[in-house]
Design brief:
Blueprint: E1 5-9, E2 25-31, E3 40-45, E4 48-52, E5 68-71, H1 74-78, E6 83-87, H2 93-96, H3 99-102, E7 110-112, H4 114-127, E8 135-137, E9 142-146, E10 149-155, E11 164-170, E12 173-177, H5 195-204, E13 206-212, H6 227-238, E14 243-247, H7 253-265, E15 269-272, H8 275-287, E16 311-315, H9 325-330, E17 343-347, H10 356-368, E18 372-374, H11 389-399, E19 401-407, H12 411-423, E20 438-442, E21 449-453, E22 458-462, E23 465-467, H13 471-483, E24 485-492, E25 503-507, H14 515-533, H15 540-559, E26 564-571, E27 584-586
Parallel strand pairs: 1-9, 4-6, 6-7, 7-8, 12-13, 13-19, 14-16, 14-17, 15-16, 17-18, 24-26
Antiparallel strand pairs: 2-3, 2-20, 3-4, 5-22, 9-10, 10-11, 11-12, 20-21, 22-23, 24-25, 26-27
Helix pairs in contact: 4-8, 5-11, 6-7, 11-12, 14-15
């Protein structure tokens, strides 16, 4: 078990005791419950808040045009003077990816291990250089006093190096957060989950355990990452004459190391492609987490000079990301690499739920251009980094908490994890399956309660726009995607007379009839509306409503479509004024 070193970090004016003796301890999940991703949890005691993780989540097809989803931190912003810092358990994006958006609003220290802070720092420097980054490096075994929170960092094995669990000692009891973990007895880097430290925390007494639920539905134990080594050995032997293209998560340094080791054994050189892959490899090398002979590395511009049977190309794209290296290759759009029947492609990753179609499309394209593709589960091309049911039971028995909250998973994972907790003897009344925004409050001498809620939800990131995009906007996007749009443009005189012919245009609107016929009918219907409204002061709202109604009648009669109708009508001179200004109506309905 690692030796502990104690450091103290206190906000100016804060005391280690926090506040008065009757203060409550609150566990506040802001993300990560009922979903895979955007993990963010807060512990609040009196006038002090400690945040654990700040992740993101990727959208599904129900959110067209959205790039990322991050937690709503309105509660933390309101209480910004209480926030002491953010503790990171490891470097995956679902635990760190929200930081570029959170740190724009909360200028607080970030506590994490060396690799985790390195990954975060790289991302911030590249994507958000204006943000002040205040890293506080820790290592497994350290104990750091952050206000009233005495935080111990405990080594855990995961699919990325330098992961930690955190044990937070508070005036009302100890809270253990496992981070993402599995009980791998033979990890690639030799850094096993610290059973001794976890059991020691259990011996001291744990008030609340927060534990990873991702694989709660999987029976047994999660295999060791070393299993991939055997898979790679077979692949290297079976495809000796082929050029090898290997796609994996850019953050899985352990897997990258195994690919590198295999390439060295079979006398191949290796090239790294994809911005995140190159960035992470360089960082892991510089920090000593990835060991590779520099002579093995092939610059991307020299790939064509290396014989096929002497080259491995490692790239991003295992999830079918549209602009990733592998996807660009499959489309024939990559600048340096063209794939064909001389190539064997290995997908060394499982498919994240929601990405199945993207991945399948990529695999189909690879087959169609003649590549050999290895991706099937029975070929053991992926090993999870999360604990399965028996490992989750072991964690519960090591820590022996008084109360338990399953975290990090969809609701079914949380429910299944709660059943596992009951199997090892935790009373059902002491297990809380929660939702984001619920508050679990502890007070000395009383049972915990969850009568309180805070604002929590999703903030949608659309390009450079960051905000809580209204449901109306998303509804409009879905309607446009499904049925298209018809725009009707017209210019009117003050008396309602047409100054120019009505113009009708459409985008994404499907009809089987001749193009001109339906457009002519729409124009005629709109012109009749204008005649009905001519001769007096124009009622803008009534005119707009009538135009949309008549256009919809024509469209539904001819094509049964529910296309969005957008009138673009201007009135010259001021006859259709609203509040003294010329009226130009541009609205979606």
């Amino acid at each position: 078990m690692a030796k502990t070193a104690t450091k103290t970090h206190r906000r100016k004016g804060a005391s280690a005791e926090g506040t008065s003796g009757n203060a409550q301890l609150k566990f506040i999940p802001l993300g990560g419950l009922g979903e895979i991703g955007k993990n963010m949890y807060a512990l609040e005691y009196g006038d002090n808040i400690l945040v654990i993780d700040s992740g993101l989540m990727f959208p599904d097809q129900e959110l067209p045009g959205i790039d990322l989803i991050v937690p709503d931190i309105s509660y933390l912003e309101v209480h910004r003077e209480k926030v002491l810092g953010i503790v990171l358990t490891h470097g995956h994006e679902d635990h760190t990816g929200g930081l570029p958006f959170v740190l724009q609003r909360l200028n607080v220290p970030i506590y994490g291990t060396r690799l985790t802070l390195g990954l975060v720092g790289n991302k911030l420097r590249e994507d958000s250089p204006q943000i002040e980054f205040r890293p506080k490096e820790v290592k497994a075994g350290d104990v750091v006093e952050i206000g009233p929170f005495k935080t111990r960092f405990i080594a855990v094995s995961h699919s990325i190096p330098d992961g930690v669990a955190v044990s937070v000692e508070t005036p009302l009891g100890r809270v253990v957060h496992t981070g993402d973990f599995k009980l791998d007895s033979t990890p690639i880097d030799g850094r096993v989950t610290d059973y001794g430290a976890l059991a020691e925390e259990g011996d001291k007494g744990v008030l609340l355990l927060l534990s990873d639920s991702t694989n709660a539905e999987r029976n047994g134990f999660t295999p060791s990452e070393r299993l991939i080594g055997g898979t790679l050995e077979r692949l290297y032997r079976n495809y000796r004459t082929k050029r090898l293209i290997i796609s994996s998560f850019a953050s899985n340094v352990h897997r990258i190391q195994q690919v590198v080791d295999g390439a060295a054994r079979f006398n191949r050189r290796i090239a790294f492609l994809g911005r995140s892959m190159v960035r992470n490899v360089e960082l892991a090398k510089s920090l000593g987490y990835l060991k590779i002979d520099e002579k093995m590395i092939v610059p991307v511009e020299e790939i064509g000079k290396i014989p096929d049977n002497q080259l491995v190309i490692m790239t991003t794209g295992s999830q079918g990301e549209p602009f990733s290296g592998l996807v660009m290759m499959s489309r024939g759009e990559h600048k340096q690499i063209s794939l064909g029947d001389r190539d064997a492609v290995f997908l060394l990753a499982s498919v994240i739920p929601g990405n199945e179609k993207l991945v399948n499309n990529t695999i189909n394209r690879l087959f169609s251009i003649g590549c050999e593709v290895v991706y099937e589960a029975d070929k053991q091309t992926h090993v999870s980094g999360h604990a399965s049911a028996e490992e989750l039971k072991i964690m519960l028995n090591l820590v022996r908490p008084q109360y338990f909250v399953p975290i990090h998973g969809e609701y079914r994972h949380l429910a299944r994890h709660s059943q596992l907790a009951q199997d090892v003897g935790i009373p059902p009344r002491n297990i809380f399956v929660m939702t984001n925004g619920e508050v679990l409050s502890f007070q000395k001498g009383a049972r915990p309660s969850r009568r309180e809620r805070v604002q929590a939800g999703a903030v949608l990131i659309d390009g450079n726009a960051v905000g809580e995009i209204k449901s109306r906007v998303m509804k409009e996007r879905r309607e446009l995607a499904e049925d298209g749009i018809i725009a009707v443009s017209a210019s009117l005189a003050q008396n309602g007379a047409l100054l120019a012919p009505v113009v009708v245009e459409s985008r994404g609107f499907f009809f089987q009839d001749e193009d001109s016929a339906i457009f002519d009918e729409i124009r005629a219907a709109v012109e009749r509306v204008f005649k009905e409204f001519s001769g007096g002061r124009i009622d803008a709202d009534a005119l707009n409503k009538s135009v949309k109604s008549r256009v919809r009648e024509v469209v539904r009669r001819r094509s049964a479509s529910y296309a969005v109708v957008m009138p673009l009508i201007s009135v010259a001179g001021g006859g259709g004024q609203r509040g003294g200004k010329n009226w130009l109506e541009k609205e979606f309905f």
